[in-house]
Amino acid sequence: MNDDVESSSRRRERGAATGWTQVVAVVIGIGLLAGAWFMSRERALTIFVVSMDTTRPDHLSAYGYDKDTTPTLARLAREGTVFTHARTSAPWTLPAHMSLFTGLTPDLHGVQIDFRVLADGRPTLGTIFHDAGFDTVGMFTAPYVHPRFGFGRGFDFFERCTLEPMVYDLPPQQVDAQSGTRELISHKEVTSRRAVNSALRLFTVRPTDRNLYFLHLFDPHYDYRAPPEVKKLFVDPDYHGPITGEDLMAHPELLRPDMPEDDLRALLANYDAEIRWVDDNLAKVVETIEHDGLLGHAMIVVVADHGESFFDNGRFGHRLDLRDEVLRVPMIFWGPGIVPEGRSVDDDVALYDVLPTLMDYADIPASDEIYGRSLRPLIEGKGLPQRACVASLTFLSHDADQLGYLTRHDACVLGDLKYVRRVRIPWSPAAPTEIDRAPLVDSADIDVFDLSEDPHERTDLYARDPNDPRCLKILRAVANEEQHQRELAVRLGAVAEVNLDRGDPLEMIQQVGYFSPVDEANQSAGSVPAPGSKPAAGAEGDGR
Hints:
Elements: H1 2-43, E1 45-52, H2 71-79, E2 81-87, H3 93-102, H4 106-109, E3 116-118, H5 125-131, E4 135-140, E5 157-160, H6 172-188, H7 192-205, E6 210-217, H8 228-231, H9 261-291, E7 298-304, E8 309-310, E9 316-317, H10 324-327, E10 328-334, E11 343-345, E12 349-350, H11 354-361, H12 376-379, E13 389-398, E14 404-414, E15 417-426, E16 445-450, H13 461-464, H14 469-492, E17 496-498, H15 505-511
């Protein structure tokens, strides 16, 4: 009997021990789950990537402009990190945005001209963040950010925020006939409010911990059609001349190097109003982040795809050349609790550095198939080795004998030194891949500028003395960057494809003003097309 009592007692003790073990296990399990939830909340991150089209930093009050064009951006700059020497990779929308989306130079992503699309399988902003578990949403407002080129890949939503269809939304048989009309319409729509509101509505109904939102805001591009209440902040009420900001594409004769001074002031005032209109709409994004309690878990990065020339060197527009008025762009990172406050960085950085920087903050592993580099060390005050920025411009034209050719511009900037090279090679629509075989090293047309003493790029050091130490320094930087690109090109393989399935590409380019029977090489820096004529690709008045 005593044995039975002892056995029963031991069974009770073992049962009690087992019960406590189970309790402890449950407590530990709950703790682990709570820890995992807490860690997931720590990893929660919402990123807004904002691209302001055609925006010069020297027209932003955030960069010291004397007119109050950007109170929202000025706040983001005060509370975040601003880059003072950021440059685009190309002076027009398509290749510049492709660099933003891929972290590659135009030569490496290959989408340098209107009929090129990104090769299938090439990682982009959308695919990289989608694969990392982010909810991905994009809003675009101009034809050259259309999914047709590959921008929509990886996005759960990639929405056109225009009332009218774009040229690439049309059936192929309508493209040639309507390209010019669609282009004019795209310049007339005012889209910032629609794009921001559409993004924020989706943000409200799709609450997740990891979000990537891309906003392309086209309004700073001409035509300049800010609402009247915004225009009156900048436009002189006593001005009654022909420059209203509207119909600029339809009336290029209004825009010329010798235009009256009050007309030029009106042009700039309307441009400033467009920037303010975009800034006012961006304020809603900041308000939403604050209202939803996302501070510490949200970032905004604001950039531009390119700047604009207001006759700084004799011409109006962009897709002209590689002068700094079209290459310099704003770049601001904001994120209280993530991005240091009140930091200004003077290092040379480029649009293709944005993607690897955002990957770094999102804990997405770096890729050796990206040309850009993370700027996070610079943002956090740790420094990075000096590195040159590169840009390029390729466009089509033909001469009086109807011989087609490519004109190719390359630039490399290292500190105050800037290198520019121009080449021209024969080209035929029958061999569209010839664009990839433009010479990268040898050229008879090279300029070198010292921007510290010649900010308007008018004194060519190379022509004066090719052995000037400044010339030799920037030439070494050019050689290093080209070697880096060649090495990466081998790893990447094909990055772009020719897409000729939407009508005649040359006819379409001509319709929107990017192709002309004008020999661009023979135009002076101050020349503009005759009223009613098509500007040369890269001449005054061209589009995106």
